[in-house]
Write a structure and sequence with these properties.
This protein has one domain. About 40% of the residues lie in helices and about 20% in strands. The chain has three helices and three strands; from the N terminus they run αβββαα. The chain has a three-stranded mixed beta sheet with strand order 1-3-2. Helix 1 runs parallel beside helix 2. The two termini are about 20 Å apart.
């Protein structure tokens, strides 16, 4: 799988797991946004910054799934490229 396919798979998996996935574009009047995970009340949000490299967006989704929805990964077939990203923690 190429990185774009891994990203698309993780976005779908995250949504199925109940995470709120949002895209953030670049704005000339707002400070730059970086991909990451945040909690707002009872929800877990994954913000994917359009200006970030694909690998950074993949890392944000993998972190959210590992830390907040690990049960969604158990007993589920995951392509090897996706499993590798989920098992590889932050560098």
């Amino acid at each position: 799988m190429d990185p774009a396919e891994v990203l698309a798979f993780l976005v779908e998996l995250s949504r199925e797991a109940g995470l709120q996935v949002r895209s953030a574009g670049a704005s000339p009047v707002e400070p730059p946004v970086r991909s990451g995970v945040c909690r707002l009340r009872d929800g877990i949000f994954v913000i994917l910054a359009a200006g970030d490299p694909v690998e950074d967006r993949i890392a944000a989704l993998a972190q959210a799934l590992r830390e907040h929805r690990p049960a969604a990964l158990e007993g589920r077939y995951l392509p090897p490229a996706v499993r590798e990203r989920l098992e590889t923690g932050p560098a």
